[in-house]
Amino acid sequence: MRSDSFTAPYQRLTRPLVREDGRLRPASWEEALDRAAEGFTRNIERHGPDSFGMLSCARATNEMNFVAQKFTRAVVGTNNVDSCNRTCHAPSVAGLAAAFGSGGGTSSYQEIEDTDLIVLWGGNPRFAHPIFFQHVLKGVHNGARLFVVDPRRTSSAQWADRWLGLNVGTDIPLAHAIGREIIAAGLTNDTFIRRATTGFEDYRALVEPWTPAAAEAVTGVPAEAIRELAHAYALAERAQLCWTLGITEHHNATDNVRALINLALLTGHVGRYGSGLNPLRGQNNVQGGGDMGAIPNRLPGFQDLTDTVVRGRFEAVWGREIQPVHGKTLTQMFEAMDEGELTALYVIGENPVQSEPETQKTTRRLRSLDHLVVQDIFLTKTAELADVVLPASASWCESDGTFTNSERRVQLVRKALNPPPGARDDINIICDIATRMGHRWPYPSAEEVWDEVRALSPMHRGMSYRRLEEHQGIQWPCPSEDSLEPSYLHARLWADDPAERGEPAPFGLVGHSPPVDLLDDDYPLRLTTGRRLDDYNTGVQTSGFPSPLRRGELLDISPEDAARLGLVDGEVVRVSSRRGSVLVPVSITPSMREGLVFMTFHFPQQADTQLLTLDATDPIAGTAEYKAAAVRVDKVAAGAPTAEREPTAASRTT
């Protein structure tokens, strides 16, 4: 089934825009920069620095993200900086940091090829992470067994030795049952548990009720499949446990991550070559944005900003005191707009109108701001609401710099093209605004910015541009220019010397918490969301390009549910949640289990899936529950249009 929708391509921004009499009009760079700086200064003077928020860009270079967070802390004086890391893998960072003190994936891609068993949990990397999936296929061809845990029988699952199709939101019961089976079967790595972990006895008691039979009743996964995965994982010499947004986009996402980490602690599948824990990042620099401090609780190099010594090093270089308290997450910034506490927002390369849950609420909050500045390459739906729009460079081809991928590899990129006339480099734009706000920032080269990163972040210190080019990228940590560290993290946990082992990794004592949006007679189907292969995020950068694979927005539904509802393939239906409704064609597919439907967020102009989702968030990481909305599907009259939105207030006119 293919949708007939076509989205006209976005036109590249090449002139600044400013709002006048409710409309955006072209302006000179001088006027636009003056207005941007004046609005920020006005709000800081009236309401204090914490009235400002920065949304930095996970698709831009490390250098841009470093400068963006430096602007927030050293020019504005707040820690309110975040990025779409909050939307996807903030729970992975929080969970890994709680267990190991570091928020990065523990292994290299090469280790995926050399391992004995691969578990893909809560994701479809064949579509969402195709480069990583090539390493998975090499591992499979080299003899690794592949288990896929996912509510849908995805294209990744079609390569698996075993697919475990669980009910949405039951990851913790399944993980607990696997852990209990490993313990009951005597397959734990007792030496590793004793020397490198804490809390095992409490964990044993926690998972004891979760027998495979008890878990089957909750998860829908057959007990014998639970036993098979438990034994295979525990007995493998080397095993890689990988997860994506099916784990992290839940109201209890950090707990989900901790539940998976527990399995590695039980078996010793961490801190060794070929054994590890790996969140798969979906954007080219979402790992790097966090590493550069574009998050509210860490300075560059994942250093705690509440540490006086750490903070002092940055203050000495920047000449400005840094607040010793965590800033607001992206989620908290939007909540603060409701209270009038956050009145100015600087958005670089993000599109929250179409990426955040509950579209109408997000739009209302952005309209309430006194001052919104959007810096982007296209006039996105978010940019249409702005007071100032600044045409930026496309970092992947129009800037020098570095990116950091899911395996923590920092890679050098070189400028291939100049931005189109009228557009400017992101870093230079930020520097111009900083200068107008009383902090004279001359334009630095990308390498000069990177050298400042290296001077302040111990884990990046050994990564000069020369070495990055010489080695075709280097994984962090790399504290010295004279050596390279192992490709995997946390080898210390295997050291014989307790002092060398350092802090043990605690088991996460987490309980099951079902999805917030409950199923009932009015909303009996579970909607989960995700990506398809040929499109990217909200479609801004991809939907205007022709693709033979593109299907447009569709509602994937099981044959059983389609028969019960009397639907035929391609029929337009109304999908409704407690927050809104959209019209969309159905695609009947055996990959869907009964009671489960699936949509993407690639085509918001055709069917705005985020009207259906809800903003219940993880209290630790602030990530929303995109994966578990309750919906109903209704037939509509013949000839209905293929897109519908709930009524919204009149938007600002462009």
In short:
With 654 residues, the protein is of the alpha/beta class. The protein contains 24 helices and 25 strands.
Given the helix and strand composition, which structural class is it? alpha/beta
> How far do the termini sit from each other?
35 Å
Strand content: 15-25%
Q: For the largest beta sheet, what order do the strands appear in spatially?
A: 2-1-15-14-13-3-4
Strand count, sense and barrel status of the largest sheet are: 7 strands, mixed
What is Rg? 24 Å
What is the overall pLDDT average?
Answer: 92
Query: Helical content, roughly?
Result: 25-40%
Low-confidence stretches: 642-654
Question: What is the number of strand segments?
Answer: 25
- The geometry reads as globular
**Count of helical segments?**
24
Properties at a glance:
654 residues; alpha/beta; six-stranded mixed beta barrel; 33% helix; disordered C terminus
Please, could you describe this protein's structure?
This protein has 654 residues and is α/β, with parallel strands linked by helices. It contains 24 helices and 25 strands. A 7-stranded mixed β-sheet has the order 2-1-15-14-13-3-4, with helices on one face. Strands 20-24-21-23-22-25 form a 6-stranded mixed beta barrel. Strands 7-6-5-9-10 form a 5-stranded parallel β-sheet, sandwiched between helices. A hairpin with a 4-residue loop joins strand 22 and strand 23. Helix 7 crosses helix 11. The C terminus is likely disordered.
